[in-house]
Amino acid sequence: MMPMALSMCDEFATARLRHAERFIKSAQIWERLRRVNTVVFDKTGSLSAG
């Protein structure tokens, strides 16, 4: 039951992001986000890799 609930949560979160015009390129994003400790935005509000 738990894997099904997690899949539904992923789909719900992806749909909400899509509605907000934010697009997910890879399903691996959810696993990678668990390891993020800090997010830094520049003065324009952009995120970039580096």
Counted beta strands: 0
Mind summarizing the main beta sheet? none
Which range does the strand content fall in? under 5%
Helix content: 40-55%
Distance between the termini: 38 Å
Output the helix-strand order: HH
Low-pLDDT segments, ≥5 res: none
How would you sum up the global shape? globular
Rg over alpha carbons: 13 Å
Structural class by helix and strand composition: mainly alpha
Output mean pLDDT. Answer: 75
Please, how many helices? Answer: 2
Describe the structure.
The protein is mainly alpha-helical. The protein has a domain at 2-33. It is built from 2 helices and no strands. The longest helix is centred in the first third of the chain and has 18 residues, at 2-19. The termini are far apart. The model has no long low-confidence stretch (mean pLDDT 75).
Task: Please summarize what this structure is.
The chain has two helices and no strands. It has helices at residues 2-19, 29-33.
